# Entry
Amino acid sequence: QYLNDQRSGLWLHYHEDNTPAIEGGYSKDKPEGVWKTFDEKGNLESEGRFESGLQIGVWITYHANGQRALIQHLSAGKLNGLETEFDKQGRKRRETLWEQNRKRGLEIIFDENEVEVSRQYHEGK
# Structure
């Protein structure tokens, strides 16, 4: 739907086979509120929030089996805070701290048993 020639309200996009692809809202032609994306089988791929067209808060990406793949924290459309990556079995693989889209602080890599194998400090440059 449109309001004053600008996208507004809930929008649904579909894959060619008519399964849902994207579900999200608009306000004054900018993404707003909760957005979800789906793969071609209808499985949830990602979900998060927009505010005034920018990603905010927690965004989660999923593996095809439904397990979380990535949890990111965003502020005004930029990575800001902890990002955690998981393998297809749900085991933690990596934790990285971000500040304004730059790695800043500790990044930890884990093995398949979630045992820390390396850590690196980033200056944010």
